Amino acid sequence: MSKIDAAGTYSLGNHKVKRMGYGAMQLAGPGVFGPPKDRDAALAVLREAVASGVNHIDTSDFYGPHVTNQIIREALAPYPGDLVIVTKISAKRGTDGSWMPAFSREELTQAVHDNLRNLGLDVLDVVNLRSMLGIHGPVEGSLEAPLTVLADLQHQGLVRHIGLSNVTAKQIADGRKICEIVCIQNAYNLAHRADDALIDELARDGTAYVPFFPLGGFTPLQSSTLSEVAARLGTTPLQVALAWLLHRAPNILLIPGTGSVAHLRENLAAAELVLPDDALKELDNVAKIAAA
Ligand SMILES: NC(=O)c1ccc[n+]([C@@H]2O[C@H](COP(=O)([O-])OP(=O)(O)OC[C@H]3O[C@@H](n4cnc5c(N)ncnc54)[C@H](OP(=O)(O)O)[C@@H]3O)[C@@H](O)[C@H]2O)c1
């Protein structure tokens, strides 16, 4: 039994994954573009994650582009039987590293094939359709056309499960008329809690919610409450932030991102951190202060 087992498991399609996973976006170069500064370090992070029991890795072929998936393959193939690699499609990168929508049938189909080739897989476990209607947050609008393409690729046997990312509750409900949706991946953390109601709704129907930016994203969370709670418990502020997410709802699966083995170990150790009631109350207030 590994330490991260303390956080339990949750269903992701027909897989049961550990709730403490790993997000691979930080393995590409600066700005998620080009190769990492230290490829060996990137390989070491992935190998350490899996050796520590992680069986849920989040990626995309537009990280790099291609680079992150190629590093995952080099580090981990042949893959352990229980490893679930979740990818996402619908964006492409400009030559300057910019992020652009890639929503056409041709682009989505190409993206699935790029993921298969670069990961070295015959079938993708889970593919999230990432809405690019808004780059920085969910924006209402129809996802029917791209989701229908992804459902077609699922029928062809190239994709096992489908999820949605950066979406609203209405887009999820509309999407469910097209295909089964096994997970939602939106921005959420201690200080950014727009999805509070959605998380509870998804928990009721057994759908996994996978917060991206669980540590705050490119600029990790900083809050005096986090620091005070961490000091009292003899842990670190970011471990407290992760433990709070694990406590927040049973359907939350964590994918904290890091390019550092030391940070990975620190993040995985949060699986064992139990937050006392008084700390939980204080942490709940951080969102209210952030929203004020
Ligand atoms: N669906 C989407 O649109 C979307 C968008 C963004 C991300 N994602 C996914 O979500 C995953 C998580 O998001 P994220 O990686 O952007 O953000 P994050 O997990 O909130 O934070 C990552 C940042 O925190 C730092 N960090 C990590 N652990 C640390 C520690 N213990 N101490 C100090 N700093 C630490 C990392 O730097 P170091 O590398 O130096 O540790 C990096 O700067 C990504 O890997 C990606 O798979 C999805």
Class by alpha and beta content: alpha/beta
Count of discrete structural domains? 1
CATH second-level architecture: Alpha-Beta Barrel
* Gyration radius from CA atoms, angstroms: 18 Å
Question: How do the SSEs run, as a string of H and E?
Answer: EEEHEHEEEHEHEHEHEHHHH
> Number of helical runs?
10
Report the major sheet. Answer: 7 strands, parallel
In CATH terms, the superfamily is: NADP-dependent oxidoreductase domain
Explain what the structure shows.
By secondary structure, the chain is of the alpha/beta class. It has one domain: TIM Barrel. Helices cover about 40% and strands about 15% of the residues. The chain has helices spanning about 40-50, 65-75, 105-120, 145-155, 170-175, 195-205, 225-235, 235-250, 260-270, 275-290; strands at about 10, 15-20, 20-25, 55-60, 85-90, 90-95, 100, 125-130, 160-165, 185, 210. The radius of gyration is 18 Å and the shape is globular. The N and C termini lie far apart (about 45 Å). Bound molecules: NADP nicotinamide-adenine-dinucleotide phosphate. NADP nicotinamide-adenine-dinucleotide phosphate (NAP) binds near residues 24, 88 and 166.
